[in-house]
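Protein fold
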Amino acid sequence: MIIHGNRILTNAHAVDYAASIEVKRPGIQKQFLAHVDQIDHGCDLALLTVEDEDFFTQVTPLSVGPLASIGSVVSAYGYPIGGETVSATSGVVSRIERTEYVHSERSLLLSQIDAAINAGNSGGPVVSNSKIVGIAVQGIDEADNVAYMIPAPMIERFLKDAADGIIAGVPSFGAYCHPVENDALREYLGLSDRQSGTLVSEINYGSSSWGKLAPDDVILAVDGIPVANDRTVALTDGARVEFGYLIERKQVGESATVAVWRNKTETSVTLTLVASDGLIPAPTYETRRPYRTIGGLVFQPATADHISALTSDVPTSVLSAYLESTYRTESRRVLVMMTDILPHRVNRGYQDWPMSVVETIQGTPVEDFEHFNQLLDTATGKWLNITFSDKSRLVLDLVAARDANDEVFKTFAIAQDRWPATPATVAVK
């Protein structure tokens, strides 16, 4: 869809990995070359520019409207199933909730609509009263007329983020919270009948909540908006969504004021919002993955990309952390995996080992990928000693493993022992 500033707004998943993009307007047969100007995979939105300004002649751009309430009549436009002419289907908004975006695997605000949406509708506008109220994004194959659109507030948030030319991403609250509906739990916490909120149980290292909130805090309100005992806040016309939306509608760097019940006393804390991942980061898309090799062993930080590509071979510890959305801690910020073993005489006997999560190098627990590289660079003694989460142990001759790198690189066409190619500390042999 064309919006102000001679730009096209679409889904990130419609243009990711694209080597070339061509666009056309209804009624005009000419194809126009387009480029990605801004893209945010987290909220599955992208802005395109078109080189030829003739593409925008005699076009009235659409503007973004308000959040469409439940029951609002909407029309979805697009090119389903590869059609050559634009299609329009009508329906109503049937649900507003905070649920998972398929592309980013992150839970953000979505609106469910019953207008017919199929493959090819992605990136198309959903319109009500001549305003954009959403962008068609995904559907459910097993259900009839159950589709989702990215609603107007998330579109506006993305456009504001993109205004300075740098995508900072969607901020996250960074704390796992439980409902506070049980009477015994409420009495234990000292909550009165007029108080409601959600109980903090775990906090993600480096997140918006890190250093500000603590386990057993009860979040009573965010920016003055009360949080119910089921973790929801009010939207419009009686609709309710999980309170995390109050953070996700803002920009990275902005602040949020949180009313907290702590030790049976109400207090207030101010969060500076940041974007943060769990222990298993979301899919990266179009981003080269870091790696490190030594003696034919290949190591990488675990990401959701490994889960989607290698589910049958992913270590149990990685899969569990992914499925349970395990948070990072100060001492464990990334899971480092041995993802491959390139055959060489120095690693003979290990070549059939499965992918494993590294626990220690030379007896020191691994904190993140940078720390892992430091431990390899500064390792001393005769042996390289690596232990894994399944309690297995791998031992190589340290000098021989380092000396084998050149031969391994030549055999497998590897340019360097690591990426990013940060300067290595001089290793002591």
Remarks:
- The first strand starts at residue 2 and ends at 3.
